[in-house]
Amino acid sequence: MIRRILISLLVVGISPAPALTLQQLEALAREAAPEQRLAALEAEALQHRLDAAQAQGNARLVGGASLADTRESVSETEIRDYRRSNLQLGVRWSLLAAAREREQASNTARTALQQARLNEQEVLQTVLRQLRRAYAEVWHIGERVRLSHQFLQSETVAQGWLRLRMREHLLLESDRLSFQSMFDLARRELVRHEAAQADALGVLQRLTGQSLQPFVAQPLGLQHECVSLEQLRAEISQRPAVAQAQAEVALRQQRVQEAKASGMDAGVSLVQSLSRDIGGPSGRSTGVTVDFTLPLGDGPVRQARRAAASAELQRAQLLLDTRLADLQRELTQTHATLTVRLRDMVSSRTQLDAAQEAWRIAELRTHSLYGDVLERELQTRYALYQAAMDYSRARQRQDEAVIDWLALAPADVKCPAATGLPPLPDTLFVALAKAVSLQPAPQTSSLAPQQTVATTASLGFFDWNGRAWLQRTAPWSALPPGTGRLSLSFTAEQVKRMAEPKNAWVVRQMLNNARQRGIRVEWLLGDPEWVQPAGRPALLALLRQLSGFQFDAVNLDLERSQLPDAAQADWAEQVIDTLHEVRQTVSWPVVLTTHHREFADKVWVQRLLDAGLSQGVAMIYVSDPERVVEIAQPLLQGPLPLAIAQSVESALPGTESSATQGRRLALTQWQRLAGQLSNQSGFLGVTVQSWKHFQEAKP
Asked: Is pLDDT above 50 for 439?
């Protein structure tokens, strides 16, 4: 019986933040994006400049001092020579020039501020567009990374039968290299997409100012139907780029009018003066002075200024017309691109369906025909992989076209949220990872030709000490030949450490080591109380911590019999609810491990599939292979792909466990069992409980 994970190590304080939605990321970017902050600071500086221009007055403090030698007639016969010092202080109000200068400075600052505010809107639209495109990249590239991982899982098995076909002189070396290049190209795509996904995540982090580790993207809920081409054409003047050009035209029109004014100025001064004759009496005076200035010969200057202002106005008008034409052309091109992308996705989906049907037929032929059916199956599976990658790219291009289209709409246009494109079906990922291997077929007579039969089954192990596989001394070489599945469990404390950025490379290295060996790695989680509403948040909290890693699946070990009797009646319904919440939390395929009798309920199995379950592992702890086949065959005829769990635990009796047989005989028995069930299309192999007990068994 598969042991439950001890939850004594589950610390209550571990509660990682839930994944941020696109709307939450947009709200963060509005405040934290560097481009947006720079635009806001520029507008703030221009606001202060406008305030300064408007606060400028037309009064000026004037003053002066003089010292003069003076000869003055006192009478007809007397002349007075004396030296006089004079000090003047007053206020002068300009009647024309100061007001004109203040108005010009205010208009210039006001227009600059208006353009800065419009530029701030344009920058915000650009930031949101960049964020949405990066978010779409993370989501869609994540799907393509999974597709590549799934296809590469079958590499080891494919290499084995390719070498066997070579030894039997049924395959040319050039053909073998051609088949090998399929996996090489898939590996290249994987590396390229992982780098692109990391780059897109970096863009999200830069725009939001958040670490976003781990991060799980969801389908974009954007729709384009709420914005029509005619509506955007009618509202094109509301675009920030057009409004900026219009503001420039208005400013240049004012400059033309200002250039017509003359340079004349007039002013009124109130002056108080003090004078003192050196060696004589002092005096004072108070007066009001009216003055004016008129430049001489300024006709050519004013004419040149008017010509310059007129040229600047024509330039601004031409810029406005050019921007309107460019935006009209952009609208037309973006709408045409959106239309093409929508059609492309439909076409790509049709090609994917055709490739999936071609692979299904090729895979069925491997069960009953011989010759080059294996090569044909691999060719069609690679074609299916390419079609799936093309379909994913088409989905991304459609989302990007919708993002570009909505970016052209005015800021006040709000479209209702949509459900977004659904994830790629789990059956597609299962098909890509389905490894077909060769085994000798029984001969009907000594003269019968040597034949081979195909099987898609592989051997797997549960290991409740998953930490061992993170070590440099991980026992990869000790795995029996044909091992294609590892279900690894970790304690809550180990999960917490694995989620730390400094330890992430260790987890990724372990996953890469497994995939290079063609081994599927599942995160094994087991606690009966997690199906109950009170215990489910603990499960979801654990899942979020490692959601950034590319596990091939999450395997939930949920057993009805481990719950108290009073809680068992609601178990089946609670499993459905748990599956729904798990699928909303992580993007990995979900596997359910439980007692085989649960999978006998066909209605419940269909509900599991509807809830998003990808595979099941039926616990059939019976050591008699014939009895196992008898139990498993009806289950495998259903729509849910199943692996069969066998036990090698020494604590169980010999009727339930293969421990007493030893490793060699147990492997032979499991291989024979896989051969007997290989004609069932839903059979995924034998999974052993557990790796620890298998190692402890006698040879």
From this structure: no
